[in-house]
């Protein structure tokens, strides 16, 4: 930190994202982004009026957040894939927005006929995020002046009309781009504007310091709104950059712990359908919250960069994100459930405030926000896999396959990451530099990777789990580093003393046979119900402290679509018994039987596959009596989870 306290400057961030385009996906990640480009996200502006005829491009349809949301995802997708078809779409949208900037500096149509908002800063905040990515990829000279003019306009507006409604709750979204402009211009009035935004915005640090939303919420409020909350996770980290108040930095961990404690799900998410909904794994989480939690973590990885944030980021990205799309990415859910045994239009839904169709797969189930917003998930994950460190080094946050081309200490460097991670334990890193160049490579070693090893030409050695491993050297030619992250099968004790099973960053779920039935829409973006064709009401025979004794790992090899039931590269074989009395309630898996449970039914072999590969599933399991009682301290666990 090089600035004095008091908000006169911003703290330096410990990690800086690489400009959009310097990281390119490869392997399975490239195929996943291509699926997205070939699916709904890459075609939404052709088939969905709220984007195709958005007021942001001169149309008369929804003119508020939906066009901006889509733009915020299609821009990184276009440049990560270097896809001409997508870049033509992006250029059209950016031109339309920049060439219609109002005389007073406001960006966008100003008035939205659908909801009646006028000069609402909230949707503009999304466009600003999109435009900053566009500028980094293209160096378009129009972007920075346009953003400066908008912030001048906003400064005048806030003096007359303070932030309200969505813009008040989501005030941090304005700060992201404001800081970006400040770092280019060092214009001090921008930090004064940031202070105004803080004063007028909702105070999420106070919200979590006095958190009263501890149960399943029964009424819709802004304060308990799941997407507002997911966006707010970055609030303390962004304020810390301005306030330099250590309490803001420390608030990040307590905020996340609070959400886990009262509303946590095994995927690393918290529930919300669409207000906070407790820990019941049948309840559901909105897709917008999934992609916004991921983005909040990406911002925090840069702003504070703690290792626990990266582990959660991977957990959400590899589990909750892929699970909520159909494998071809033409259909998505509004709410995904952890114990999701069917996806049907429910006449008596379990959801708090969401509608009957909230967990079917479709074009726009329940409400269209996720349709527009979901596109940011995979591209932004890709763009943040590695970041730059202040001493001209590179740091790995996750090891999905990619290639980085960047300049370090004045020399062009290429880093190739070859791996099937998270479906594999091994990662081959190749650093290529034509001229000798010295820089550190920082490798994040996850806490679960006990016995991790790094192998170079000089030999192999074990590195510490839950820490950074720093490789400082002069790189020249092509140098290879082999990283091995051992993945052991582990359990978590969850809702009603249930057990979940995980291995490395992947959560495992019961594979169910599934029947898809088109119930509306037109192909390829139709609406679907999904029903199980095999039983779901199982309890596991699993020794919690030594699950490897009762689970057998089977590797099937990488597939063209790994996040699909048929393409799952890994599975676990385990024994279980049916629980005949466990029934559907509110057309969802009924109250989770409290473990340990007993059953007179015969043992059956069950197949678990990665959560992200499933469309219907069970992932928080009752545990059979004999096995469950082998766990030390079970009584303590029972009392802890009895609520
Ligand atoms: Zn949504």
Description:
Helices cover 35% and strands 21% of the residues. The radius of gyration is 24 Å and the shape is globular. Mean pLDDT is 95; it is low at 1-6 and 627-643. Zinc ion is lined by residues 286-288, 369-370, 373.
Strand content: 15-25%
Say what oligomer this is. Answer: single chain
End-to-end C-alpha gap: 44 Å
Q: What is the tally of helical segments?
A: 20
Average pLDDT score: 95
Bound molecules: zinc ion
Rg value: 24 Å
Helix content: 25-40%
Low-confidence stretches: 1-6, 627-643
Identify the overall geometry: globular
Instruction: Tell me how many strands there are.
Output: 23
What structural class do you assign from the helix and strand content? alpha+beta
Can you give me a brief rundown of this structure?
With about 650 residues, the protein is of the alpha+beta class.
Please supply descriptive tags for the structure shown above.
alpha+beta; 10-stranded mixed sheet; 20 helices; 21% strand; disordered N terminus; disordered C terminus; binds zinc ion
What's the layout of helices and strands?
Layout: E1 16-17, E2 23-25, H1 27-38, H2 40-47, H3 49-52, H4 66-81, H5 84-99, H6 121-138, H7 143-160, H8 165-169, H9 171-185, H10 188-200, H11 204-209, H12 226-232, H13 235-243, H14 246-263, E3 285-286, H15 287-303, H16 307-323, E4 335-336, H17 369-373, H18 377-383, E5 386-389, E6 393-396, E7 402-408, E8 411-419, E9 426-445, E10 453-456, E11 459-462, E12 467-484, E13 489-494, E14 498-503, E15 506-510, E16 514-520, E17 527-532, E18 538-541, E19 552-555, E20 570-578, E21 584-585, E22 588-589, E23 604-610, H19 625-628, H20 634-640
Parallel strand pairs: 6-9
Antiparallel strand pairs: 1-5, 2-7, 3-4, 5-6, 7-8, 8-9, 9-12, 10-11, 10-12, 13-14, 14-15, 15-23, 16-17, 18-20, 19-20, 20-23, 21-22
The protein binds zinc ion (ZN).
Zinc ion (ZN) binds next to helix 15 and helix 17.
């Amino acid at each position: 930190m090089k600035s004095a306290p008091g908000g006169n400057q911003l703290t330096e961030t410990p990690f800086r994202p690489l400009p959009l385009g310097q990281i390119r996906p490869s392997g399975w990640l490239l195929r996943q982004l291509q699926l997205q480009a070939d699916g709904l996200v890459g075609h939404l502006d052709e088939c969905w009026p709220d984007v195709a005829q958005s007021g942001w491009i001169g149309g008369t349809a929804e003119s508020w957040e939906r066009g901006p949301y889509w733009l915020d995802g299609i821009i990184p997708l276009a440049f990560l894939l270097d896809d001409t078809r997508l870049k033509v779409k992006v250029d059209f949208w950016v031109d339309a927005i920049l060439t219609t900037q109002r005389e007073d500096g406001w960006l966008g149509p100003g008035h939205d006929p659908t909801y009646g908002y006028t000069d609402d800063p909230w949707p503009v905040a999304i466009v600003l995020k999109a435009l900053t990515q566009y500028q980094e990829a293209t160096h378009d000279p129009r972007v920075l002046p346009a953003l400066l003019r908008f912030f001048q306009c906003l400064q005048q507006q806030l003096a007359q009309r303070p932030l309200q409604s969505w813009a008040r709750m989501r005030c941090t979204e304005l700060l992201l781009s404001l800081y970006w402009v400040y770092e280019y211009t060092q214009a001090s009035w921008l930090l004064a504007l940031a202070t105004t935004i803080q004063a007028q915005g909702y105070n999420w640090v106070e919200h979590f310091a006095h958190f009263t939303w501890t149960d399943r919420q029964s009424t819709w409020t802004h304060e308990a709104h799941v997407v507002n909350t997911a966006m707010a996770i970055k609030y303390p980290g962004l304020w810390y950059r301005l306030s330099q108040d250590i309490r803001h930095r420390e608030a990040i961990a307590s905020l996340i712990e609070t959400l886990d404690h009262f509303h946590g799900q095994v995927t690393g998410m918290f529930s919300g359908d669409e207000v906070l909904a407790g820990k019941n794994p049948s309840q559901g989480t909105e897709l917008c919250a999934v992609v916004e939690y991921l983005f909040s973590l990406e911002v925090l990885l840069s702003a504070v960069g703690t290792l626990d944030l990266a582990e959660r980021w991977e957990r959400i990205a590899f589990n909750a994100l892929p699970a909520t799309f159909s494998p071809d990415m033409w259909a998505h859910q509004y709410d995904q459930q952890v114990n999701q045994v069917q996806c049907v239009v429910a006449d008596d839904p379990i959801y708090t405030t969401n509608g009957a169709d909230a967990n079917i797969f479709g074009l726009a189930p329940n409400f269209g926000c996720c349709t527009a917003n979901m596109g940011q998930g995979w591209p932004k994950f890709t763009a943040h896999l590695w970041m730059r460190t202040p001493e001209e080094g590179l740091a790995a946050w996750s090891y999905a396959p990619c290639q980085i081309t960047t300049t370090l200490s004045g020399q062009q460097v290429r880093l190739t990451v070859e791996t099937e991670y998270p479906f594999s334990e091994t990662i081959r890193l190749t650093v290529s530099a034509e001229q000798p160049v010295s820089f550190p490579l920082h490798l994040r070693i996850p806490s679960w990777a006990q016995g991790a090893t790094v192998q170079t030409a000089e030999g192999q050695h074990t590195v510490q789990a839950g820490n950074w491993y720093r490789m400082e050297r002069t790189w020249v030619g092509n140098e290879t580093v082999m990283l091995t992250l051992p993945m052991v099968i582990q359990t978590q004790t969850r809702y009603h003393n249930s057990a979940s099973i995980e291995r490395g960053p992947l959560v495992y779920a019961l594979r169910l046979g599934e029947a898809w039935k088109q119930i509306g829409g037109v192909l390829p973006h139709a609406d679907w119900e999904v029903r199980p064709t095999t039983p779901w009401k199982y309890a596991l025979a699993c020794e919690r402290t030594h699950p490897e004794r009762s689970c057998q790992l089977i590797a099937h090899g990488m597939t063209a679509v790994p996040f699909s039931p048929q393409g799952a590269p890994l599975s676990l074989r385990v024994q279980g018994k049916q629980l005949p009395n466990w029934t559907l309630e509110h057309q969802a898996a009924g109250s989770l039987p409290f473990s340990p449970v007993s059953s007179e039914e015969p043992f059956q072999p069950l197949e678990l596959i990665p959560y992200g590969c499933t469309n219907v599933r069970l992932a928080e399991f009752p545990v059979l009596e004999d096995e469950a009682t082998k766990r030390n301290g079970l009584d303590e666990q029972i009392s802890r989870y009895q609520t």
